[in-house]
């Protein structure tokens, strides 16, 4: 694993030397002796963490921090202020500028190491979540690359699924996880031939057999990760076409044997699919979409989820309005 880089900024050489002796055995260190040097070094090296003196002759630490946070190239760098005891009354200004912590001079080696280690752990966790989000966008887009869905569909549907999960009592953390997992529900379509995915007319029985394989293909792709996010996405990919009465695929599961996440996504997915414009159809009116959900109660959908979805319909329509600007072309229920 690459060693994390830390930018240390102080106009006093003795302070730089003290921090160098504490940290040099574990991290790659970069040094600057002024605010302007710090900004240039941050732009050039993109350190994971910045230890920043508050009192400096050209730009003080607060001004440096504000400039870093205003620059998209450096806004993600975590800043810890190094400050003297007589300067500790201004913590609020530092946090308002964007710092994550303070260390008081004269520094303690044990405290410096602990604070640096803890904040670098947070940096790594943030980086990992960004990687997950990037993967979600790529897998979600890949699943619909060759079909006729617009890219907006998967993100809007995921927002509906999150709202429904919250309504039926899911914890916030699990709702957020569902919103990230749901866009990958059709990842397996990447393994379906274009001739099937893009066929303008009805599919033959043989073509339907091919199309139904996308649930297992998606599961096999997503299940290769042990991360909870991708494990949830794998289950949704496999089960979102199962039906409450057992008439779905790939395994004909029924009732509570279908994971609740997949049952939620099924409602959200059908609602959005009927609501959106496709090359072969106009968006259905709201009343007709709601009637379709009612007709699916007890056979396609769990009745309880249909009831809750109707309860939060005003919120669903707000979500729909929020996405209107991103729709290509715009096609929203009236």
Automatic annotation (TrEMBL):
Modified residues (4-aspartylphosphate): 53
A Pfam family that the UniProt record links to this protein: Response_reg
GO MF entries: phosphoric diester hydrolase activity
Protein name per Swiss-Prot or TrEMBL: Two-component system response regulator
Gene Ontology BP annotations: phosphorelay signal transduction system
Species of origin: Chromobacterium phragmitis
InterPro entries for the chain: CheY-like_superfamily, Cyclic_di-GMP/3'3'-cGAMP_PDE, HD/PDEase_dom, HD_GYP_dom, Sig_transdc_resp-reg_receiver
Ranges where the HD-GYP domain occurs: 128-325
UniProt keyword list: Phosphoprotein
CDD domains, sorted: HDc
SMART domains, alphabetized: HDc, REC
DNA-binding among keywords: no
Domain annotation Response regulatory: ranges: 5-120
């Amino acid at each position: 694993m690459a060693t994390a880089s830390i930018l240390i900024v102080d106009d006093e050489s003795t302070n730089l030397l003290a921090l160098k002796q504490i940290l040099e055995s574990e991290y790659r260190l970069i040094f600057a002796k002024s605010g302007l040097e710090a900004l240039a070094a941050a732009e050039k090296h993109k350190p994971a963490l910045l230890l920043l003196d508050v009192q400096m002759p050209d730009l003080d630490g607060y001004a440096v921090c504000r400039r870093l946070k205003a620059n998209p190239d450096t806004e993600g760098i975590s800043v810890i202020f190094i400050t003297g005891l007589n300067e500790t009354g201004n913590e609020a200004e530092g946090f308002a500028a964007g710092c994550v912590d303070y260390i008081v001079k004269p520094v303690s080696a044990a405290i410096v190491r602990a604070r640096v280690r803890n904040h670098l752990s947070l940096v790594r966790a943030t980086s990992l979540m960004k990687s997950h989000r990037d993967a979600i966008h790529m897998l979600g887009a890949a699943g619909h690359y060759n079909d006729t869905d617009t890219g907006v569909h998967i993100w809007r549907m995921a927002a509906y699924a999150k709202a429904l999960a919250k309504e039926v009592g899911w914890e916030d953390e699990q709702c957020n996880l569902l919103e990230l997992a749901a866009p990958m529900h059709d990842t397996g379509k990447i393994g379906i031939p274009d001739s099937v995915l893009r066929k303008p007319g009805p599919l033959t029985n043989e073509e339907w057999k091919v199309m139904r394989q996308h649930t297992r293909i998606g599961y096999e792709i997503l299940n290769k990760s042990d991360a909870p996010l991708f494990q949830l996405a794998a289950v949704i990919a496999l089960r979102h076409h199962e039906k409450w009465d057992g008439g779905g695929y790939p395994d004909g599961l029924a009732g509570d044997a279908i994971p609740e996440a997949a049952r939620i996504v099924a409602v959200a997915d059908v609602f959005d699919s009927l609501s959106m414009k496709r090359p072969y159809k106009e968006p259905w009116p709201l009343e007709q979409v709601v009637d379709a959900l009612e007709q699916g109660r007890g056979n396609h959908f769990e009745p309880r989820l249909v009831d809750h979805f109707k309860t939060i319909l005003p919120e669903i329509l707000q979500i729909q309005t929020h996405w209107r600007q991103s729709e290509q072309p715009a096609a929203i229920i009236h």
